[in-house]
Design brief:
The complex is a heterodimer of chains A (489) and B (272). Chain A is of the alpha+beta class and 489 residues long. Helix content of chain A is 29%, strand content 23%. Chain A contains 13 helices and 19 strands. In chain A, the strands form five sheets. In chain A, strands 11, 12, 13, 14, 15, 16 and 17 form a seven-stranded mixed beta sheet that branches. In chain A, strands 1-10-9-8 form a four-stranded mixed beta sheet, with no helix packed on it. Chain A has a four-stranded antiparallel beta sheet with strand order 4-5-7-6, with helices on one face. Chain B is mainly α and 272 residues long. Chain B has ten helices and no strands. The radius of gyration of chain B is 22 Å and the shape is elongated. Classes of the chains: A alpha+beta (489), B mainly alpha (272). The interface between A and B is medium-sized, with 25 and 22 residues.
Amino acid sequence: MRYGSRVAAAILALGVGAAQAQDRIVIGMQLEPPNLDPTGGAAAAIDEVVYANVFEGLTRYRSDGTIAPGLAESWSVSDDGTVYTFHLRAGVKFHDGSEMTADDVKFSLDRARSDGSTNAQKSLFAGITDVDVVDSVTVKITLAAPNGGFITNMAWGDAVILAPETAERAATEPVGTGPFRFSRWVQGDRIELVRNPDYWGERPALESATFRFISDPTAAFAAVMAGDVDAFPAYPAPETLAQFDADPRFQLLIGSTEGETILSINNGSGSLGDVNVRRAISHAINRREIIDGAMFGYGTPIGTHFAPHNPDYVDLTDISAYDPELSRKLLAEAGAEDLTLSLKLPPPSYARRGGEIVAAQLRAVGIATEISNLEWAQWLEQVFRGKDYDLTIVSHTEPMDINIYARPDYYFQYDNPDFRNLMKDLDLASDPAERSEILAAAQRIIAEDYVNGYLFQLARTGVADARIQGLWPNAPTQANDLTGVSWRE
Amino acid sequence: MKVPAQLWFGAALSSAFVVAALVSLVWTPYPVDELSIDQRMRLPGDGYVLGTDQFGRDMLSMLMVGARTSIAVAIVAVGIGMAFGVPLGLLAAANRGKPVDEIVMRTNDLVFAFPSLVIAILITAVFGPSAFNAILAIGIFNIPVFARVTRGGALSLWTLDFVLSARVAGKSRLRISLEHILANITNLLIVQGTIQFSLGILAEAGLSYVGLGAQPPTPSWGRMLAESQTLVSLAPHIAAFPGLAIVLTVLGLNLMGDGLRDILDPRLRSTR
């Protein structure tokens, strides 16, 4: 034992010696992206590699969630709110050396909203009727109706700008305008990026960046401890964070994500269509216990499907406060005392651990559950697409995704015309105060309909070498922006 | 006849776990289906003999109920293996060299060639993961083992004089198989049964470890190991105890199997 720790210390000393004048970084990620085209796939892992690093859009997210100019230097909106004129930065070059012009913007937006488009977020572009090239650095976008969220929509990874010559190959050889160029992809292991010397903006401090894929939490822990990985921004084993916290070689990056972690209820399955049964389930849940037990204290309780760090968030946790007595009463009144529900859990530890805790809490009020642990592919097949489930736990990580409740064919199978009208109003509203009001009303409707059990906002629990600075603590969108990352000293 | 020390030791170890499993049917120190998050990861001592797990459940109670899961799966799996394997083996031996023998034994080889884990993954891919499907997978894997042992033992018996005289007396192959052959290979089957039982416990732990065995909240040693692996540095006892339980049970059963073989196996006895 003592001999072992001495060897470890020696290896460590070697590692520190070699770490001088660092301009490379190895970022750990749990999931490998299926491809590298953010405009052609839904996987969060795609954006986590390429967003703001390889590809850029007209506008972009900042680390605090606000929107900043991207490839568009500035923009103006017509008085009726339907025509956006974007003024592009001049002299921006793609990684293959060609100039980025208004034609590329038109191409990218038309491609994303075309009928054959495989874009995962087509609704971002749904309101666009025309994209016109005014001159090489000016684009005019006409909307069918005013859309207060349009500038935010253009900041999504799904709305990045590609060149027509290279768009087809973006899935394997992405060519963008960002501060890093794609260098190489070793399938199943890592993706390497190198600095783009011709970047239009400030030169990044890092010479190169490697994204390594480590799906197993134990292996992730070992990789960070051994220094094989310099930073793991979405670290999958929150239980080991205390150890990193106590170790001066590491820093914790604790922030918030856009992940509303919910106990999804299949509103179309048997007695779960009864609002009182769903209400009973909601009142049976002790959020504090789930956050402590599954996330080791990292997470913020939520009472509706909305991120607490958003200024429009309304704290509605009281509507579904922990009250097992009330639960039992509601179940008795609804005549659903011998309820047995399936609880299908995807792989992340928030779901697996959270699921066991939820099952115990439901058991305490007399609801039996049958847990099955599923892999992601099975989960997508059975739960998300097949709607063959009663309960599941999953984190909805898209920003501002309350509008999914307006889709009766979504896997919750929640159908409320009032809510749908509210979302229509929201699309038309561009006055910030009016939008806040609509969003507050929407949050309240789904909380009072007890559509799902709202558990907690997923914390972003990251760990990194203590000498790294500039990593995003929060995840306002799915991204690992390396533009401002550097090593201290 | 001298009873070897390893048999005593093995039998003592294995029966300790069987007793623990039986006791868990009527009593456990704490309930295993209630979580108490504020009591989680307590060290051994401290009000709980073996400490608590990541959900605040008592480790001793979890291990006792886990023993029940392991033993139940292993017993039924060995039962399946015997129920199908022994008749197949008898049939093959009674028809030595005929097409029936070939078909049975080659089919056996085919099943034998698949690792049990692959069969388990196949079964769970079709029917979904559960303790029942784990039993099925391990049971199927046991069939060729028993078929081979039975056929091997039976073949040597078929050449002996008392079987020959039974045939001369006009007994059918079926009756000879059941009345004479089966009775004389019981020792062989007991020994093999003990070994398969320990392999069954190991297989159940393996399947649960990769998530294909008993589903939560049913406690299972393999899953306890899997769920505690990221907690090893924080609370080593959560991983250590189920690991120890598996090692000791399998060790006990193997020692017992070896000891029984020394006493019971006629082949070994004659070579002494």
